[in-house]
Amino acid sequence: MMSKETVSYFIKLWFWGSIMAAAILVASAHCSTTSTPKSSDTTCWLPEGCVTQYQENPNSYKAGTLLDASVIGEYQGMNLRIQSLGTYELFSENLLICGWPVAKFLPAPSNYVVLTYETVSHRTVQGVACHELVRVDEIVLPTGLGQ
Length: 147
Fold this sequence. Notes:
alpha+beta; CATH 2.40.50; five-stranded mixed β-barrel
């Protein structure tokens, strides 16, 4: 049988050990799920401002035909239905875009487009993630191709 001093010593050791383990976990657990820009190591002397550097690409891309563009709410966002390149018609995709002029998509372009948008959504519209559109590039194929 252990003495009271030995039991007390092990209880104190367990208590302080768990406090230290919890402190280490809390100190190492504050990570971010978004791609944060890495500030430049040099002094910014450009009149346009500093260039932000990313370790991961913050953008996503969709290439295909724009099938439908519809406004959600009071111009809160726009739902784009895209037929991706190289897939069956069964696999159309919907993408909710915020902060982009509606007139750019109405009427829907008949050619192929490449949509570049931010991967991380910064807000929601009616509970659905809404992405910021960076740019739209229209791909015009030469006559006879893609027919």
